[in-house]
Design a protein that fits this description.
- This protein has 223 residues and is α/β, with parallel strands linked by helices.
- It has one domain: Rossmann fold, CATH 3.40.50.1000.
- Helix content is 48%, strand content 20%.
- It contains 9 helices and 9 strands.
- The protein has helices at residues 19-30, 38-49, 55-67, 73-91, 94-105, 118-127, 158-170, 190-195, 206-215; strands at 2-7, 70-71, 109-117, 132-136, 138-140, 146-150, 178-184, 198-202, 219-220.
- A 6-stranded parallel beta sheet has the order 4-3-1-7-8-9. It has a 3-stranded antiparallel beta sheet with strand order 2-6-5.
- Helix 1 (19-30) packs parallel to helix 3, helix 2 runs antiparallel to helix 3 (55-67) and helix 4 (73-91) crosses helix 6.
Length: 223
């Protein structure tokens, strides 16, 4: 029997969402003038709230505005590693860190499953000693430069569960041979939580709290 512990990242492991903070960090580091475009990002975010832009579109436009249409892979790696170093040091909740280590000690394979971009989520995951990462991916051009477009789907909601299943298949793990724990703060991860053998609502917002109460899922507060 394989034992998997699947963790969401933003506001489950980290104290705060990471995407906007990564963009701000990257702009300050490489092109501070792009911070002037943050109000435009806010307008695009309003479009998302109004249903005019989906989450994938919001992510693509935010990256294009703040990082540019293309970015050399070595430069993005440098930014991601530096951001991850700070985030792993100062942004990770201590109770989350303790639970991750407890699952590892109990023999669980640690999987981070996040809607955040893999280019920095994987760097954070390495510092927390995760074994695998399932995340949103960016397209690359023929020269290997990172584009603002997504490669495939945004790893969010039902798509996250599909991507976890795809990762299991690629890893040769049969569902019937696996015991799965899943941790998340947000009701968008309900498909993953319902599919897991053990579901934990962590630092949950009100909709997930209500669902967890109805489903009998344990509620954990790591803040």
């Amino acid at each position: 029997m394989r034992h998997l512990a699947i963790y969401d990242m933003d506001k489950t492991i980290t104290a705060a969402p990471t995407w906007t903070r990564f963009l701000v960090y990257a702009a300050k580091t490489r092109a501070p003038w792009r911070l002037l475009l943050l109000p435009v990002v806010a307008v695009v975010s309003l479009g998302y709230l109004l249903g005019l832009v989906d989450r994938a579109g919001l992510k693509q436009w935010s990256q294009r505005l703040i990082l540019g249409q293309t970015l050399a892979s070595h430069e993005l790696e440098r930014l991601a590693e530096a951001f991850a170093e700070a985030e792993a040091r100062d942004g990770v909740l201590e109770a989350a860190r303790a639970r991750i280590e407890a699952d590892r000690a109990a023999g669980y394979r640690l999987v981070m499953a996040t809607a955040s971009h893999g280019y920095y989520a994987a760097a954070i995951a390495r510092r927390l000693h995760f074994d695998d990462v399932v995340a949103t991916q960016a397209q690359r051009d023929p020269d290997g430069h990172i584009l603002s477009l997504l490669e495939g789907d945004n790893c969010y909601g039902p798509v996250k569960l599909r991507m976890v299943k795809d990762w299991m298949a690629a890893s040769g793990i049969e569902r019937r041979d696996a015991h799965v724990r899943a941790y998340s703060d947000h009701v968008s991860d309900a498909p993953l939580l319902e599919w897991a053998d053990e579901a934990f609502a962590v630092n949950a917002h009100a909709p997930l709290k209500a669902l967890a109460q109805a489903k009998g899922w344990p509620q954990l507060d790591w803040r």
